[in-house]
Amino acid sequence: MDIAVAEQLFPNWLTVVTQLCATGVLLFFATKFLWTPGREMIAKRQDLMQKRLTDAEKMKEEAEGYRAKTEQELKEVKARAKDIVEVARKEASDEKERILEEANRQASATLEKANATIEKEKAELRKDLQKEIVDVALAASTKLMGKEELAAQDQRAIESFVKEIQNESGR
User: Fold this and answer.
1) Gap between the Cα atoms of 15 and 146, Å rounded
2) Residue 6: exposure state from Cβ atoms within 10 A (0-12, 13-18, ≥19)
3) pLDDT tens, 63-109?
4) Which of 11, 30, 116, 163, CA to CA, is 20 to 30 A from 132?
5) What is the mean pLDDT of residues 11-38?
6) Cα separation of 119 and 68, whole Å?
7) Distance of alpha carbon 166 from alpha carbon 171, whole angstroms
8) HSE of 66 in the Cβ direction (CA atoms, 13 Å)?
């Protein structure tokens, strides 16, 4: 058994060249059909991602602008609401004061009316009492005197006497 060691150590040049040609053909087809379209697809994907990132940043900036605008509007609305509440409180307070004044005025008017009615009734009672006193005094003097003609004079005298008493007593 003679093994050719030289053949085993050194490769066959025809096989090497065939292998290299096959590898070159594979590289050529891989470059033409896989590498270039793959790179183009990756570039498109990268552009798409970059565009999406740019759009996202713009949207974020717009959102920040809207947020700031909304916060400002919210502050303005809160301030207006606070003003409206203050105006409503003031109006309610004014209305309360007006109602209290009206109630006090009505109470005073009712009290004055009641006092006037009481004074009127007192005056009527005094007048009735005075008339009754005059009638009793006249009846008593008529019985005592027995004369009808003197009754008119006695009535005038008694009425003037009662008026003098009232004037002195301050009624």
Assistant:
1) 184
2) exposed
3) 999 999 999 999 999 999 999 999 999 999 999 999 999 999 999 99
4) 116
5) 90
6) 75
7) 5
8) 6
